[in-house]
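Appendix C: a fully annotated inverse folding record. The material below is reproduced so that readers can follow the format used throughout the book. The structure is listed first as tokens, followed by the designed sequence.
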């Protein structure tokens, strides 16, 4: 028996160097790749996903296949056109905005939907090449919501779990989707459907009730003679890795550099993928308001914005990048001096020691998404601050806010609330900072990523066993 993990992206980004013909590979960034890496050590696991390459050369594909197979990774090959329709189109121009409550953004185009169906089928066919009914299937995220039912049709007794990494929206939002019924039917092929919070699970069950007409009983519903369970599995981080990082020499030297550079100044840190859901513009406005209201703080504080490039081909993301460039420049032009730059903004990803060094050096983490499934950055910041004061300001619309109750929570749409939260964080006595951090660390330690993964798999096996005994009786 093995665990078959499925996600849009494989956890490695591969590239064939044109001159030498060699394959280079680096770990893919993003919440899921970071989260599931813990599972590899604990389980016999294979992983199916898109390889990060759209090569159509049979020779290159065969080389990548061989390279991946040695690492139990199975690539799904999609043409450029299909990938664009499925990923850039349906996943990121329809589902992503709708599920994050940006209801005016979705482009409900039939071609995107067709590409989504086709890509989910391509995933299914690839998985079936190397699958048995004994396997446990763990399908991840909004790119693959039709896959549970597709696998179920071929392997009726398989243990199939699905986890959604983004919010599941309220019925009034979800019902706007022209393919709402098909999406719910696709998901209902799973025996267990996991969400980051109980609220998302409840919204999902309400949609199942309203759209599929199924009765809901204690988090479950019946479909085609099977029981499907939906529940909350808040995803964690590799807690130990983050608590230990502050002792690594390269992290210590990074922290030293930051301390020298920012001597006598407080550092506010934000880390996000470039995305409109992350509330980056509203946060800049909040910081601007803070500087306007607190002239005495000018020159004594800096906002470090680490923004990781994402979905560069999508127009809305290009537009957002332009707005961030302009607004950061505006704040620096308005308040900056030859000796002080209020906003320092980096548009790239950094290596792990630098990220940890940034977390450790920051006096305040300002994490204000307008919607976010969970937000692992908030947990990572808290975990790194062992024996080191720090304050987490967190949006009430991040799934993480359900667990990190001792953060300063803000409504990310309120510029004044963000400005006031920064004031509150700066005024917070060190003892209170430590007390709040310790309480949050306790929660994060208890729901580490390994417990999250093990808990989901355990629940999936239990759900499958119950269904089997019901079918047999
Ligand atoms: C989706 C959902 C949900 C970021 N910059 C760098 C870097 N990172 C790492 C962080 C963190 C991860 O990427 C980002 O995770 P988030 O949870 O904050 O956000 P999404 O990428 O939007 O993830 C989200 C998540 O899935 C998991 O279910 O929480 O709600 O949107 O781990 O550390 N890592 C490195 N350099 C960077 O520059 N090394």
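Designed amino acids, in order:
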């Amino acid at each position: 028996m093995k665990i078959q993990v499925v996600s849009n992206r494989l956890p490695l980004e591969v590239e064939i160097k044109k001159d030498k013909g060699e394959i280079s590979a680096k770990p893919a960034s993003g919440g899921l790749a970071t989260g599931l890496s813990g599972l590899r050590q604990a389980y016999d696991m294979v992983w199916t996903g898109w390889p990060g390459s759209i090569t159509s050369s049979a020779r290159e594909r065969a080389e990548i296949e061989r390279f991946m197979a040695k690492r139990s990774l199975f690539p799904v090959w999609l043409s450029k056109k299909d990938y664009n329709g499925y990923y850039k189109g349906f996943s990121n121009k329809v589902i992503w905005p709708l599920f994050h409550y940006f209801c005016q953004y979705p482009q409900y185009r039939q071609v995107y939907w067709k590409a989504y169906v086709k890509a989910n089928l391509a995933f299914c066919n690839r998985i079936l090449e190397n699958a048995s009914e004994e396997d446990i299937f763990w399908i991840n995220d909004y790119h693959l919501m039709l896959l549970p039912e597709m696998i179920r049709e071929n392997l009726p007794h398989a243990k199939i779990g699905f986890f959604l990494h983004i919010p599941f929206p309220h019925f009034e939002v979800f019902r706007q989707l022209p393919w709402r019924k098909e999406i719910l039917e696709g998901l209902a092929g799973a025996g267990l459907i996991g969400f980051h919070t109980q609220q998302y699970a409840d919204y999902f069950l309400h949609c199942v009730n309203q759209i599929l007409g199924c009765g809901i009983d204690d988090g479950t519903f019946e479909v085609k003679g099977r029981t499907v369970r939906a529940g909350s599995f808040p995803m964690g981080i590799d807690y130990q890795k983050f608590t230990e990082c502050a002792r690594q020499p390269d992290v210590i030297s990074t922290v030293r550099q930051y301390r020298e550079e920012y001597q006598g100044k407080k550092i506010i840190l934000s880390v996000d993928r470039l995305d409109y859901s992350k509330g980056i513009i509203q946060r800049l406005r909040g910081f601007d308001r803070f500087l306007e209201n607190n002239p005495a703080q000018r020159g004594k504080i800096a906002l470090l914005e680490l923004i990781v490039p994402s979905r560069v081909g999508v127009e809305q993301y290009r537009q957002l990048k332009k707005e961030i460039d302009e607004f950061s420049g505006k704040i620096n032009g308005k308040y900056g001096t030859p000796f002080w730059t209020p906003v320092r903004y980096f548009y790239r990803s950094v290596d792990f020691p630098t990220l940890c060094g940034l977390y450790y050096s920051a006096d305040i983490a300002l994490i204000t998404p307008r919607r976010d499934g969970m937000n692992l950055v908030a947990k990572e910041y808290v975990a790194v601050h062992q024996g080191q004061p720090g304050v987490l300001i967190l949006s009430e619309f991040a799934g993480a806010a359900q667990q990190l109750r001792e953060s300063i929570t803000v409504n990310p749409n309120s510029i004044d609330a963000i400005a006031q939260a920064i004031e509150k964080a700066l005024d917070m006595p060190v003892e209170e900072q430590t007390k709040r951090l310790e309480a949050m660390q306790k929660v994060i330690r208890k729901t580490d990523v390994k417990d999250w993964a093990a808990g989901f798999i355990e629940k999936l096996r239990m759900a499958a066993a119950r269904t089997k005994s019901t079918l047999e009786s």
